[in-house]
Amino acid sequence: MNSEQNTPNSGSALEDNLFFHKKRRITGVTIQYYYSCHREVWFYTHFFDPEQDTNDMKLGRLLHDKSFQGKGKRAISIGDSVVDLVQKGDSLIISEIVKSSKLLKPKIKQLQYYLWLLKRQGIVAKGVIRVPKERKKISVSYSDEIENELIQAIESIIRIIDLTAPPEYSPKPYCRKCAYKEFCEA
């Protein structure tokens, strides 16, 4: 028996394949897109870059750059994913900084994915969504149930990636501000 199979850092072959796909590695952004729009997943994983000059993209970068300066380590990589803010205290706290509390589920799932990545490395952390404009701090839970949901989501993401064309366009209320809008409406 391979001794690596018993270490906290190694997962099953299925779990290891969940991180890397032939087209693009699955990141926190991929998870976020999965919970908002499957077309975004396909575009992102096929190297279509979102429009960077939208007001929402600019505001997001500004909030990320200016919020919580000096409050912890910023833009810390976990594999191919990047956590906005990492702080030490009684426990390790990882945070995602967001523009508003609208459409939170995708960001929560992204943060839970980061918690899962850390757990696979033997690191227990807490998660917080921070909404500086609203002065909100939202604790994000993690459980075995959430872990199973993430694994199922990643398996679904792999199926989306393997499609020869993006999933069918299905308009949503937030499409008008989407950085992939030009691709969807083409």
Written overview of the protein:
With 186 residues, this protein is α+β, with helices and mostly antiparallel strands. It has one domain: Lambda Exonuclease, Chain A (Alpha-Beta Complex). It is 40% helix and 17% strand. The protein contains seven helices and five strands, in the order ααααβββαββαα. A five-stranded mixed sheet has the order 1-2-3-4-5, covered by helices on one side. The N and C termini lie far apart (53 Å). The relative contact order is 0.18.
Strand content: 15-25%
Report helical residue fraction. 40-55%
Shape: globular
How many separate structural domains?
1
Mean of residue pLDDT? 78
Q: What would a concise description of this structure say?
A:
This protein is an alpha+beta fold and 186 residues long. It contains 7 helices and 5 strands.
Task: Considering the chains and any ligands shown, give keywords for the structure.
single chain, 186 residues, alpha+beta, Lambda Exonuclease, Chain A, globular, disordered N terminus
What is the secondary structure topology, with strand pairs?
Layout: H1 13-19, H2 28-36, H3 38-45, H4 55-66, E1 73-78, E2 81-88, E3 92-97, H5 104-120, E4 125-131, E5 136-140, H6 144-161, H7 181-184
Parallel strand pairs: 3-4
Antiparallel strand pairs: 1-2, 2-3, 4-5
